[in-house]
Design goal:
The protein is of the alpha+beta class. It is built from 15 helices and 18 strands. Strand 4 and strand 5 form a beta hairpin.
Length: about 500
């Protein structure tokens, strides 16, 4: 057998037998006077942090889960771990006594939580370790952990029982720790650039800010239907009316739509507004932020995506400045005559190009489908697509030279939209017309309170949205949105 080759799976006991054995060990711990589900335990370090900043001869107190163990006669080596990482521990019968050592050997399992007190040292093989002087059982695991070699390979278990995935999968732990740090860095970046964080309602009586189907609920105290928000936009713009000039919200949005590799019905967005700015100034802000994240967490501006074997499948280059191109010019790069065709000719041309078109698609939807399939999906390095058709973005300001387009960008990286940015529409008359048109198509209500606020005057402004989940996917190399959301939505087992 080659080194590091996992052994064949040949369990000694069935799952029911393992559960019974652990229950018996629990009973024996209780009979021995041990609180098998203990309480407070004061620590000096986390396992991973102690190993990362290791010093010899420190007196330490560390707690965590036993992740592996190796018996060596009258001594045992085991790894103690948590989300921070692992630390090797050394337990000797001569240090803790016969009774305590026998209790550990016979009644404490891999998966149990324990606390250890001892002194740091380096073994003869160069392993950073804790020489234990006292061990305290803290919580008995009544079910075994996944096999140490194979871990969690079943996707259903990986997402439904994420805790098992995080215990056994170093890559998953790395992604979610990195995600947390990136979100903190985004907050810091926005605050350093003068933006104030605010909070707006997640439950709204009129869902607005995007063309999407909302989740519905009912507020009994007010005896009225309510909706989980599809976007915070219309409330954030009310704050521009109020006199706020730079605001952002890191928010959870909900859209009652499909599940896919790139879509989850509950997702995280950064939305920000900057009074007196425009879409180009917002693009500069986003470009700086994403490059800052890449340099801080990815080691530079080249992001490698790898397969499960560690082979590089693609490299995304975030080197600045990022390319900017008009929507119409990109379509002409697919077909120079695209805008010379009649609507029916465009439908026929789309089918020739291999793009499926719905029978009731409006002309702008046909063009958008061609854009999504033949341009967006194939663009991996950053591209700002600017000056889109006004039908696509009803909340953006019309271009002063061509009223058929709006002053916006759509940032595409890794074959998907990462961030839209607008010069915001602040004319209440035009805004009402746009929303009425959208409401007619989508059977949505118009937010009259938002129009009322606009009639009091909103300054010209730039606005952005950034899909945090997709951004994390791009920066970490994750290929599914479920790999960057701790608890993605799944169908109930029953």
């Amino acid at each position: 057998m080659q080194p590091n080759t996992p052994p064949p799976v040949a369990p000694e006991h069935s799952e029911s037998e393992l559960l019974a054995i652990r229950r018996t060990k629990l009973d024996d711990l209780v009979k021995a006077g041990v609180d098998a589900f203990g309480g407070r335990y004061d620590t000096t370090h986390q396992p991973g942090a102690l190993k990362a900043n290791f010093e010899e001869n420190l007196t330490v107190s560390v707690a965590g889960r036993i992740l592996s163990r190796r018996e060596m006669g009258k001594a045992t080596f085991f790894d103690l771990g948590d989300i921070s990482g692992r630390m090797q521990c050394y337990l000797s019968k001569s240090d803790v006594g016969d009774e305590a050592y026998a209790q550990f050997s016979q009644l404490v399992d891999i998966g149990d939580f324990v606390g250890v007190e001892g002194i740091t040292f380096v073994t003869k093989r160069g392993e950073k370790s804790i020489h234990i002087k006292k061990l305290t059982p803290l919580s008995k695991a009544l079910r075994p952990l996944p096999d140490k070699w194979h871990g969690v390979t079943d996707k259903e278990i990986k997402y439904r029982q994420r805790y098992l995935d995080l215990i056994s999968n170093d890559r998953s732990r790395e992604i979610f720790v990195t995600r947390s740090k990136m979100v903190a860095a985004i907050r810091h970046y926005m605050q350093e650039h003068g933006f104030m964080e605010v909070e707006t309602p997640m439950m709204q009586d009129v869902p607005g800010g995007a063309a999407a189907k909302p989740f519905e609920t009912f507020f009994h105290a007010l005896n009225q239907p309510m909706f989980l928000r599809i976007a915070p936009e219309l409330y954030l713009k009310r704050l521009l009316v109020a006199g706020f000039t730079q605001i952002f919200e890191l928010n959870r949005n909900f859209r009652n739509e499909g599940l896919s590799r790139r879509h989850n019905p509950e997702f995280t967005m950064l939305e920000a507004y900057w009074a007196y700015a425009d879409f180009e100034k917002m693009a500069d802000l986003v470009e700086g932020m994403i490059c800052n994240l890449a340099e801080s967490f990815c080691g530079g501006l080249k992001i490698e995506h790898k397969d499960e074997e560690g082979n590089v499948t693609k490299t995304i280059n975030l080197a600045r400045p990022w390319k900017r191109a008009r929507y119409t010019d990109l379509l002409k790069s697919i077909d120079p005559k695209w805008y010379d065709y009649t609507p029916e000719e465009r439908k026929a041309r789309a089918k020739e190009l291999g793009v499926e078109i719905g029978a009731n698609f409006e002309d702008y939807e046909v063009t958008q489908h061609v854009f999504e399939r033949l341009i967006e999906a194939k663009q991996f390095d950053p591209l700002y697509v600017t000056h889109c058709p006004k039908e696509l973005v009803p909340l953006a300001k019309q271009n002063t030279e061509d009223d058929s387009i709006v002053d916006v960008y759509e940032l595409v990286i890794n074959g998907q939209e990462i961030s839209p940015g607008y010069s915001e529409l602040n004319n209440p008359i035009v805004q009402r017309e746009r929303l009425e048109h959208q409401a007619g198509e989508e059977t949505q209500k118009i937010d009259e309170e938002f129009i009322l606020a606009l009639e009091h005057g909103m300054p010209p402004a730039g606005g952005i949205g950034i899909g945090i989940d997709r951004l994390i996917m791009m920066l970490t190399g994750a290929e599914s949105i479920r790999d960057v959301i701790l608890f993605p939505q799944l169908k109930r087992k029953d």
